[in-house]
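The following block was generated as part of the benchmark described in Methods. Ligand: flavin-adenine dinucleotide.
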Amino acid sequence: MDFSIAASVQEELDWMRRFVNEEVIPLELLLEDLNQQQMDAMFAPLKQQVRERGLWAAHLPPEDGGQGRGQVHLALMHEVLGRTDLAPEVFGCQAPDSGNAELIAAGANAAQRERWLAPLLRGEQRSAFSLTEFENSGSDPTGIETRCVRDGDHWVLNGHKWFTSNASVADFLVAMVVTDPEAPPHRRASMVIVPRGTPGLRLIRDIGTMAHPAYTEAGDLASRIGGHTELRFEDCRVPLDHMIGEPGDGFILAQKRLGGGRIHHAMRMIGQCNRAFEMMQERAVSRVSKGKPLGRHQMVQAMIADSYVEIEMARLLVLKAAWTMDSSGPHSPQAQKDIAAAKFALPNIMLGVIDRAIQVHGSLGYSCDMPLEKMYRAGRGLRVADGADEVHRQTVARLVLKGLTPREGKPREYIPEQRARAMARYGEQLARVRRELADG
Ligand SMILES: Cc1cc2nc3c(=O)[nH]c(=O)nc-3n(C[C@H](O)[C@H](O)[C@H](O)COP(=O)(O)OP(=O)(O)OC[C@H]3O[C@@H](n4cnc5c(N)ncnc54)[C@H](O)[C@@H]3O)c2cc1C
């Protein structure tokens, strides 16, 4: 395994880190009351700098304007971007746009690529991905019910979706909908593009969450990135050429938007860990209790040591997953296993580190005078978003056990039989050694 990087890459990462810390993070404090148009105007000069450095949408394959960086290189970049949730927007790799771009690139024809992929990649349009439904378990997408029926030259959509991130500012949604309820479970669904303003697409509200707490009612649309929208399709008609791929391709295409994105997401969580850990260290050497800095009290030391070890382990886990994608391919079983492992491990490790950073700061950590409480609230969603922990744990366990044959009789390590085998192998030698040493 090789995680080494060229000096030029290190230089690029150093630039990114300075840029994110000095130019992007300060914006966190100024955006609360801005609408999307105002936010875009604040972001525009930063995005220009990123483009000039050749770092815009760096995850793209060369044919779509990227530089063909491998996953390890991209992972290191996302570690820096993860320091603030604004950075992916500034660097053109904001979810769900990046995942949708992968999906459209995988399934669209030339005209569709020109119409929806190109403006997405240039950062001129935004998109949303609409799968989850209030009435059905998002953990089992084979159970979604939003219907899509052909009527002449159109598809007609009816259904109730929720948690469609960014829908209230999206130029189009990529909706996963049922075209054939009688088909085998993984052939029931298809992907259809629904442009903003299509009659019958009713945006109900941006749901209040731990990250943006507020009770919301119909009509409450935050209309800025970061919202999670409840919506209905009510006899919503789109032309036939708005389907990506063929009817029934929904599950195949859904898989296309997941691999690399999950690794980038996991690495961004390392970025959050790093930031919380830096705050924890600063406080530990600066605040005094019972005559000595907090960092010289054993229980605070335990929090620091545990955080250090967890971040280092987590970082290696994600880099290894990235390396596996580069070396064995993104869809190899080993890559799938490592991606799923990183997907459920990271949110939990990140929440643990942020929680300890809050603890070391005491009342200050719990207060809104530090970013930690917000980082914690926003981070909690990641144990659920893009598949709950339990679902990814299952994937890891399934792949670990896949292909193993059941063993007849006793376990391989059953000691009475192991002992018999050991004696058959070494019995004579053992007796000889005993005799020789006894003889003296
Ligand atoms: C911040 C955020 C952003 C999101 N953005 C989007 C988006 O843009 N588009 C979109 O379509 N969706 C989005 N979602 C929805 C997300 O994909 C779903 O919440 C997720 O798939 C879980 O589905 P669910 O909420 O219906 O929970 P359920 O499926 O009802 O599951 C609830 C809980 O049951 C347990 N569980 C479920 N199934 C199993 C199982 N097989 N084995 C063991 N335990 C299980 C888990 O603990 C799980 O958390 C987002 C969610 C969040 C939190």
